[in-house]
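Chain A, query sequence.
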Amino acid sequence: MSLSAPDRERVVEELGREPTRAEAALFENLWSEHCAYRSSRPLLSAFESEGEQVVIGPGDDAAVVALPDDELYVTFGIESHNHPSYVDPYDGAATGVGGIVRDTLSMGAYPIALLDSLYFGAFDREHSQYLFDGVVEGIADYGNAIGVPTVGGSLAFHEGYEGNPLVNVACVGLLSPDRLLTAEAQRTGNELVLVGNATGRDGLGGASFASEDLGEDAATEDRPAVQVGDPYAEKRLIEANEALVDESLVESARDLGAAGLGGASSELVAKGECGARIDLEAVHQREPGMNALEILLAESQERMCYEVAPENTERVAAIADRFDLGCSVIGEVTDGNYTCTFDGETVVDVPAEFLADGAPANDLPAEQPPEPTRDLPETALDTAFERVIGDPNTASREWIYRQYDHEVGLRTARGPGDDSAVLAIQETGTGLALSAGAEPNWTAADPHAGARAIALENATNLAAKGAMPLAAVDCLNGGNPEKPEVYGGFSAIVDGLAWMCDALSVPVVGGNVSLYNDSAAGAIPPTPTIAMLGARDGYDAPPTELSGDGTLLVIGDRALAGHEGGLGGSAYLDTTGGTDRFPTLPEEPHALIETLADVANHDGTLAVHDASHGGLAVTLAEMVSPAAGADVALDGPASAAEQLFHEQPGRAIVETTTPDAVREAFVDIAPVHEIGTATDTGRLDLATDDGDLSFAAGTIAERRAVLDRAMN
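Chain A, predicted structure.
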């Protein structure tokens, strides 16, 4: 990829001359889709990013949100590492974790949790399993080594990801208000200090690589654009950053990610309306003979750029040395242009703001996706049930999360496998609930409605643990935006996500956009991964598994209430064939979520489980255990298939000893249906108008162990 003719003309007009080779490469990377959001920027104003608890919203390395007591802040960020994870699944995924953790460090926070949302081609394909195995291993090895627990996320297999998997990683950090940093240069005369690993040639052109379609030979041709991580250096960097913030030695900070040193340093000073003088030869390097362009744009990992007052640089160097990290004073903040010198010559001399923010937005045509038609299969109920609970998209994720150390740090009250993770913030007695993910079948069926559903489902996951949502970040993944049908689908997911977050009063405080996720296999489905955090008093959240002692209620199910439903986007249609429109969503989503969170904290509530992927069939299958079963009867105007398998989000199954109190709580908010009782049989017994089903918990667990059987 090179600087386009229109962009070069714009640069020449601004500079009054032809750019140098280093300048042209900087503009190419910083004006790429990956860095400048040229195609998505016009759409992002749809998101509401302000709120009572929002301290720092979009535009910094990570967002900052105050917990309800305002005594502590949490940072929240999400990034994609999609193209690198196709070329090299292990290092691509590992360095994705490292990058989002450093975004957390640059705000002055200590990382306390990771969430990963992973998307691969059809599970029965050998290459999908190869990528899946490498990505999970990369995340596990890096996260475990740095001591940050991976507590949740999502997984999906869809043929649309065959040539372009997605790896989206979110990180949460914790800090007190007095430790807050930003990526905005504070004053001229301060030094710019590079701390961390030495700079090599790995990751060259990573930002521009992430802004173009993947070719058939990407796994070999694009390998130099993939960074190589060192988690043990990252762990030392985490602790060094903590020491630097403890001693108030840092004025501002930015991690070195896309476009390397050139990206981090120019964006840092541009946000502060300053310039910089950079001496590229002062950068500590690990390879001989590096030229100016390589030093500027290499994306070598585990590096931070700090703004430091001149009198503190020696102390910063001493702390770096204590943690066996390299340290270079590479320049200073100025009130002029962003300049870089190398070998006695000025190789870059441009206005920092023009470099960081001067890329023009793209005005692209969009075609709206067609409405799905209804074409339902005729499949025996028992066959459909076994296919759906044995589908890789609804199967047990235990093979993944048992590779993660999700309890390191001693904060994990609810970990992977639950609706949402819950972290114990012991300092204030707050439970921090976390959920992340998307469902490509939903957005493939209906991008706008599917995106709204994804936001609602993540909020329902939090409410099922008794937490109210505070804020969200998103990772908006799409194909080549220059194709009108792709841009139309992408526009629809942005509008849908923004609509539902606004309806839920959940500010979207940050995020990431990843476009050009196209390959020889075609474009990916529009994929709006969202990570959402919420808070509750205490961290003793209700479990997902049944206790065996309560009444079973379904909250918010429109099909059971007699409304016309829809099976569009469901695992049922994905496994049996057919099409349908997406289900209609609840009319009062905010009130529903607020009430469900309250009900989850009732004394009579024994278990709560969000009902979404796989419908009520999978939800009930996940709730039974050898110690507790369920005796369920479904009837009504909808077919048994629709009642069991439709995937309308905003629903939950509640096991309770006080069903009347639950019904009263939801009056005029959402329908409540009693479907049976929990038992001590260890079986799921289902009676429907189209036949009865009965499965032991052990049989269900065996059917759902699809990943274990294939990957071990």
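The chain has a mean pLDDT of 94. Residues 126-146 form the longest helix (21 residues).
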